[in-house]
Amino acid sequence: xxxxxxxxxxxxxxxxxxxxxxxxxxxxxxxxxxxxxxxxxxxxxxxxxxxxxxxxxxxxxxxxxxxxxxxxxxxxxxxxxxxxxxxxxxxxxxxxxxxxxxxxxxxxxxxxxxxxxxxxxxxxxxxxxxxxxxxxxxxxxxxxxxxxxxxxxxxxxxxxxxxxxxxxxxxxxxxxxxxxxxxxxxxxxxxxxxxxxxxxxxxxxxxxxxxxxxxxxxxxxxxxxxxxxxxxxxxxxxxxxxxxxxxxxxxxxxxxxxxxxxxxxxxxxxxxxxxxxxxxxxxxxxxxxxxxxxxxxxxxxxxxxxxxxxxxxxxxxxxxxxxxxxxxxxxxxxxxxxxxxxxxxxxxxxxxxxxxxxxxxxxxxxxxxxxxxxxxxxxxxxxxxxxxxxxxxxxxxxxxxxxxxxxxxxxxxxxxxxx
Length: 419
Description:
Helix content is 32%, strand content 22%. The protein folds into 3 domains: 3-103 and 198-254, 3-Layer(aba) Sandwich (Adenylosuccinate Synthetase, Chain A, domain 1); 105-194, Adenylosuccinate Synthetase, subunit A, domain 2 (Orthogonal Bundle), CATH 1.10.300.10; 261-415, Alpha-Beta Complex (Adenylosuccinate Synthetase, Chain A, domain 3). With 419 residues, the chain is of the alpha/beta class. Homodimer.
């Protein structure tokens, strides 16, 4: 496979970072095409934990390189911090990172806006307050800064002055970061990026490079948080699906495979509908065993049983044709597990939502399956077979722990099955 996209099949936090890191050694380029610093991808290298919010989940001591695409909104200060952490253990890693000139920047005032807007809402959305929403808002309303602006100081000053004038009017002087503050901030981060030897590039020129080698596209969050097709308004501000590769100049028709990552159960951070959410002792137990806390915010994740109608919805929306299942080991030792197979939506039985609105009205209909002692148990194989039969998507890889190497193919797992 030369061009593969890996996306989240649920509400994010499925373990995409580890999965991308596992496969990255086989690809020359790892491309982040959407999202911002509100997405935390956790990887383990030689037993040490790293949390990347913006960097692609490359293997730092391998040959692969990373590209940050125009569909992202980038907090350059956060990016620099991540690079410095990796540089301490892998000197020269920054020279393997390329940023598209067209990427949009998250600026200090975007974070202020995020807090202000969330505090003003009657019903808060549950934003991470990383400035992602306001940055995407400025992108759409043509009031923002792209990476290439920082290479023209005269134009940058003019742009920032115009933008600050408008923001000052809208927020009645509540924005503390002035245009001069942001200008100095951007000059500083540019100097830092230059010192680290980060590369700047155009996806137009990189297109021929990408098409002549192997590329792994790394998605952010999950399909159910997509701006267009997720549980709006409790979504992120960009594309979380494979279609987002268009921001790097690719079509989904050019992809050889779209892999969806799913947990053996379901989690969600923040507000919004969650049909299979558990509020009992079982939910608390799964959350504790799975260490379900957001990699970016540290907030406890909401926990529920696996939701098959949601997975079928994700399959159709994002063109998923293979699954990787993670955290199956968290359910080790349960006598039985439940799995949602259908929704009751205002009296109508549905195996797949018609639109994201159905998630708000859905009442889960469960089937109960026998639990497993370990992922080498035949009952876990039956659990996966149940998922495959319902969704029509094969599970080819299983993650059974947090470390990158704690992955195996389903065939290898079958060889270890105990009846």
